[in-house]
Amino acid sequence: MIMKRMVITGIALVVSLFIILYGVANWGVSAEVKEESQVVPVHKDWTVVFSKEMNKESFTDETIQVINKKTGEKVPTTFEVSGNGESLNIFAPKGGYEVNQDYTLTISKGVTSVRDVELSKDFTYTFTTSKELPAIGSEEELKAILKKFQNEDSSMRMTVEESADVSASSEDSASSSSKTNIQVNGVDEADLVKNDGEHIYYARNNDIVIAKGSPIEKAKVLTKIDDENFIPNQLFLYNDRLVVLGYQHQSLPRDAKEEASAADSMIRPNFRSHMAVRVYDVSDPTSPKKVRDLNLEGNYLTSRMIDGQIYVLSNEYTSIHHLEEKKQNDQEVRPTFKDSAVSEDFQPIPYGKIHQLPGSKYSSFLTIASFDVTDDSTPANVKTYLGAGDTVHMSKDNLYVATRSRSFPVDAFFATSSLPEDLEQSTKIYQFHVENGDLTYNGEADVPGQLINQFAMDEHDDSFRVATTTGQFGGDENPSLNHLYTFDLSMTPIGKVEGLAKGERIYSVRFMQDRAYMVTFKQVDPLFVIDLKEPSSPEVLGELKIPGFSNYLHPLGDDHLIGIGQDTEVVKSDGRERVVTKGVKLSLFDVSDVSNPLEKDVAIIGGKGSHTDASHDHKSLYIHPDGNLFGLPIQVSEEYERKSQGAYLYKITPENGFELQATITNDQDYNVERRWESRISRMISLNDTLFTLSHEELKAVDLSTMKEVKTITFPKQNSNE
Asked: Which residues form a coiled coil (predicted)?
């Protein structure tokens, strides 16, 4: 009897367990929106996450609706189910939602999982549109957000000053003087050197040298700007205003106890550094006068200038621990800034101007400041966003800030010496609309993978294009792949081409009107030609495989490209193949037949160890106003032994390829290691004279004869240390 009872009990338990498991497996599907705020910009896209893999066919215009609560009208949205079927992306209507309106997103319970299980009940989510992102209202709210980020900030990012659609110059190409090689016509970029056709302005480590360059007979150093505790990095020049971007060191007071502690002084230096923007009136270049000073807490990211309106971006890392430490030391927890148009004192960014970027989990402040460089009295427009920026693209109408993210816990990173093969990578791109110096957040988009640099982004007509690499370069389990995505200007995805060059990664990208050119590399250099005439359906038209790779692509007319990179060879070592870089490689690509691109000519400079700044800094490429004379600084080595450093000047035409015109060097003896001060970093031309610039001197060469005509020694730099 006891045995029979035990058997019956056992059977009952098994049946009960089966019923429970079956019930769980077939329990109604749940849905949620993982968002911090229900007050959103008008171009907000929504992602709904489901508890089970969904049947894509069950999502229709009837089961998914967005209703304007005031009018009761249905909004014409579009949607897309993610690859794994567990999330649904609902895109804002073209032109966006109406501002300051309440909306209800509804997903009916008629939608089903792949196992035909229905949504447990109708899912509804309400939201309100706003012209700007909601502000962080108080210190308590800021702390609460940072505490939440403490274990979620899983990114390993590197803030870089980005490097760039069809190349342009920073002034009209009809000018007789060369200008900075920039990304977008009409959107100037800061550089080490600027000129006004007569005068040369050059930023060195500790000062700015101003020299007269034309006419050559009167060429000489006029003066230098040398401010204590200020390190200039880059320059803009607009009419008679010289804008200098750099870093300002500020001493901090210490009490006697702190001064007595040598260990503490090493851990906590008694100074802080912040980025600074200084504006000088150079209507008289011999006597520049500082007329404005703007200081931002954080590290310089990048800057742009449009018709005298400057835009400056900075990043500052923060954390809940950082905020608490500041509070204990009676320091302001918000980022601070100083604008001489308002006050000579630092002041905190108002909480009303600190916003959280949607979807960002970064404990960083991204600050964007803009002002008219010709107006010394109107306050700068300064906004701060809780988030971060890595790579920036700017058109005349929109600013795009890309931020890399990886779902990889920080503690796991410190517990291993390498990245996992299945590391999930993505990039979020934020769009800000630009109008008369004001920037308004407009929307965002997510793309798989990471961007190589600013050239990976481009705006053309009514579309935005971006190229990315996913996976692990050289990895076996999750090999790298390369992709191109297109969006409309409300950041709604419209097209893509994916899965190019498995096992390789992007080395350079160039967007030219209705085409994109992409260079990937592992052992050979494929050049892909991609048609973007129809943004909704990008298409690979042709491909070329050659040795070496190009880090930078520059257009030469409509049907040719100049590639700047490295020559390579594959060598065998210990039974394995590896790629070794050799000399600097210049390639001329003919893309007139898009289905059959050709490498029309090649120039190799130097051997192993040779390199050029132009491969990673497009602004170091000199371009003569007539468009056929190019120069680049190159360090020449053989078997990693340095031989020389100088400027190489080429005439480049589709008909004759690369024709070396001159090499210019400051080295007196190629076998002697020269000081870095002699290194040529830039070239410019005024009328018929080419100038090379190093920290030591300005050398002039007659472009008609290619002979040196004058050398001007720069004054010795003072130390700011």
From this structure: none
